[in-house]
């Protein structure tokens, strides 16, 4: 039962619920407090240690999060969003993160993109994605190329900082990220977030797109 509670709490950290974490002024060397409704659960392993804007997961919390599909395997830290992100918002923090392999994960069910350098999350944002009939692809997709300034002729729409995922034009790119907005299969992210990701990503880097969600 304790493990299930930890997974719920980690889900809150990656945007799946509206629970808010402990206040920023709490002692930064102590384990992050869980929501009051679950702090009494027996045998709770520590969730994470707060270090400013970053939360360091214990090995057990990381394993459980990966098992439940909340995070890729082996993640050691995630960005503290101090609550659920809103449409158009993003967080980006590379301070203190050592060089490592870039990993990009898109979770359609939670409408989130997460960017990792090695085992550390450095960026996260709310996304928009493909609507019924033009669903976003799922799978393990390599970046085929990059275009900084692109305008879709087909849809007469700007696609700044495009990272191409398929030959039919599907990409991660800067977009209007608002409630009810959908794309024609692309993954739309806030434009400033797209710029930061564009600067970091290279051809051949892998984007994992997971989830069963279909925009209405």
TrEMBL record:
One of its GO terms (cellular component) is extracellular region. The active site is at residues 173, 186. Keywords: Cell shape, Cell wall biogenesis/degradation, Peptidoglycan synthesis, Transferase. The keyword Transferase applies. GO terms for molecular function: peptidoglycan L,D-transpeptidase activity; transferase activity. Residues 102-210 form the L,D-TPase catalytic domain. Pfam families: YkuD (PF03734). PANTHER family: L,D-TRANSPEPTIDASE, L,D-TRANSPEPTIDASE YCIB-RELATED. This is L,D-transpeptidase family protein. The lineage of its organism: Bacteria, Pseudomonadati, Pseudomonadota, Alphaproteobacteria, Sphingomonadales.
């Amino acid at each position: 039962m304790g493990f299930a509670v930890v997974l719920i709490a980690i889900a809150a950290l990656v945007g799946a619920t509206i629970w808010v974490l402990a206040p920023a002024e709490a002692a930064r060397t102590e384990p992050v407090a869980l929501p009051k409704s679950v702090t009494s659960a027996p045998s709770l392993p520590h969730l994470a240690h707060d270090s400013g804007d970053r939360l360091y997961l214990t090995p057990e919390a990381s394993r459980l999060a990966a098992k439940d599909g909340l995070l890729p395997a082996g993640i050691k830290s995630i960005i503290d969003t101090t609550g659920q992100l809103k449409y158009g918002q993003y967080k980006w923090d590379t301070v203190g993160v050592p060089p490592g392999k870039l990993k990009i994960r898109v979770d359609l069910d939670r409408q989130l993109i997460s960017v990792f350098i090695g085992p550390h999350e450095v960026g996260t944002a709310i996304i928009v994605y493909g609507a019924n009939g033009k669903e976003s692809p799922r799978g393990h997709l390599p970046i085929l190329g990059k275009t900084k300034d692109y305008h879709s002729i087909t849809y007469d729409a700007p696609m700044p900082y495009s990272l191409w995922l398929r030959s039919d034009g599907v990409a991660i790119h800067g977009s209007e990220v608002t409630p009810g907005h959908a794309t024609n299969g692309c993954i739309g992210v806030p434009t400033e977030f797209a710029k930061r990701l564009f600067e970091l990503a290279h051809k051949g880097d892998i984007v994992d797109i997971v989830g069963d969600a279909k925009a209405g």
